[in-house]
């Protein structure tokens, strides 16, 4: 049985990864989003994720509950092993990943398409400020990381600027995905 590709959506904080994932899932019926497990504190909004404590995460990790896990921005993130079942029934599975784990994800999942989102610095700054999850110093640190390049060795990368309207970004991505599968 051929497994559906994993589509990793990556980019700097504030680039709109969660909005793009939600819009792609709504527009392309065969694409399913994977809910990550995150140790984000109570009260912090954002993506649709499963919230766990650090201790619960480490226990899950020790029990082999994750296909992929990593640490970033003081939090722990995990891609549940259930992604394998999703890949059997979906046309593609969307997941918000860190740029730092892309090569590992490519090795684990095999068929990985990376959607690398970018946006103008002023757009990123405005979005981070509006979401209000980080302190001013944390926002500045995240903005400083915005230009971090993708690792060398990725096989399939689609780069899209998300400074403008969400529907334009989604249309560009869907067009590029169709071209790539042809």
TrEMBL record:
Pathway: Metabolic intermediate biosynthesis; 5-phospho-alpha-D-ribose 1-diphosphate biosynthesis; 5-phospho-alpha-D-ribose 1-diphosphate from D-ribose 5-phosphate (route II): step 3/3
GO MF, one example: ATP binding
Domain of life: Bacteria
Catalytic reactions of this protein: alpha-D-ribose 1,5-bisphosphate + ATP = 5-phospho-alpha-D-ribose 1-diphosphate + ADP
SMART domains, per database record: GuKc (SM00072)
One GO cellular component, as annotated: cytosol
EC number: 2.7.4.23
All residue ranges annotated as the Guanylate kinase/L-type calcium channel beta subunit domain in the record: 4-181
Keywords assigned by UniProt, alphabetized: ATP-binding, Kinase, Nucleotide-binding, Transferase
Residue positions binding ATP: 11-18
Biological process according to GO: 5-phosphoribose 1-diphosphate biosynthetic process; organic phosphonate metabolic process
InterPro entries with a match to the protein in the record: GK/Ca_channel_bsu, P-loop_NTPase, PhnN
Cited function: Catalyzes the phosphorylation of ribose 1,5-bisphosphate to 5-phospho-D-ribosyl alpha-1-diphosphate (PRPP).
Protein family: Belongs to the ribose 1,5-bisphosphokinase family.
Protein name per UniProt: Ribose 1,5-bisphosphate phosphokinase PhnN
Gene name in the database record: phnN
